[in-house]
Write a structure and sequence with these properties.
Elements: H1 2-17, H2 23-37, H3 41-61, H4 67-88, H5 94-112
């Protein structure tokens, strides 16, 4: 079930981002839910990859998005979901993981637009 959610979430997120133009926050909140559902680190990595595949499809359909953005989105999503997963394993430390994931995603988006 988590795998299907990882593939479908980006479609819903796209609709939400039309009203809340903060993709780093919106996407990481959705991925936080996935990180909580992941039963292992391996599952978290798979969920990050599946999430990034759906997002990469959106990028690939937009001719103004550079190809390198499509290719480097997967490592960023895997990194952020692993950061959240790590801090979920620490007692009451999950807000730090979520904030770090949002910050990583924000910096990624900032650097990808330069």
């Amino acid at each position: 079930m988590e795998y299907l959610l990882a593939l479908v979430f980006p479609f819903f997120i796209l609709l939400i981002e039309n009203f809340l133009p903060y993709p780093h926050v919106v996407e990481e909140l959705f991925k936080f839910f996935l990180a909580k559902k992941a039963s292992s680190t391996k599952t978290a990595v798979i969920l990050g990859v599946l999430f990034s595949i759906s997002e990469a499809i959106f990028y690939a359909l937009n001719p103004s998005v550079p190809l390198y953005r499509v290719l480097i989105v997967a490592p960023m999503h895997v990194t952020t979901i692993l950061v959240m997963r790590y801090f979920l394993g620490k007692r009451n430390m999950w807000p730090i993981g979520l904030i770090l994931a949002i910050l990583i995603h924000y910096l990624f988006n900032l650097s990808a637009t330069i």
